[in-house]
Amino acid sequence: MKYLNPKADLTFKRVFGEHPDLVMSLLNALLPLTADQEIADIEYLPSEMVPENPLRKNSIVDVRCKDKQGRQFIVEMQMIWSPEFKQRVLFNASKAYVRQMSVGEEYELLQPVYSLNLVNEIFEPELEGYYHHYQMIHVENSDKVIDGLQLIFVELPKFTPHSYAEKKMQVLWLRYLTEINDNTREVPEELMANPEVKKAVDALEVSAFTDAQLAGYEKFWDIISVEKTLYNSAERRGIAAGMAAGMAAGKAEGKAEGKAEGLAEGLAEGMTKERHLIALNMKKQGVSFDLISQCTGLSIKEIELL
Question: In this predicted structure, what is the pLDDT of residue 203?
Fold first, then answer.
């Protein structure tokens, strides 16, 4: 049997955006929920959050849903890490939280918003764990929490299944996301033994997709490859330029801060140029402006002017 990679845009949305039982299982496994908080039902919401003010930016997420309590859940699969991704996650979660309440309603009606973000790169190299949970807490007394936004980031490359018994479903879902790909011909028995994960695996069979969908799948990986190459190139050139400028400034002024300042300026300039290159390349390939904006952080107006 031949399978597709579950992390691609097409497959991720097919599995978790069309099967309520599967996204509910994933959320219960990966969200910081106690036994009495587990999700028992799910209803899909539009993945595009259109702003009330037409001059403001639309938000498009991979999967968005809510339960009968009104709690909202946003699920994102991010293939390439960029510094602005955290801000985009906070923006989308905040928008979902605010838009719950209509004019004249009481604030106590607001329900929590959970944002689960699966990242296919390491962005916290100094931390050992792969699971990062953010919430609003008192700085000096961390047991004091303001409920509302819960942001969870999972660094998939850091995940290793040390113990199958510990947090079983979390391990199974993360194995599903990290072990299944285009080279998979035989799926591990532990995954196929679980009905939910087996259903998710079966949904990845190549035979379940049309030729047009498979062509779109290949185009997705081409775009990711180009974007990652340009992004890494921008980072290398920015660091090199920054170091050169910093050392020159530091030598001329006799101050160590010259090097740091030049490094930061050079990196920022290099990243800006490469974001424009990435956006221009994606635009030429016919990628939607909304998707380009999500990948590069550029505004729709900036993309139109390229």
Answer: 97
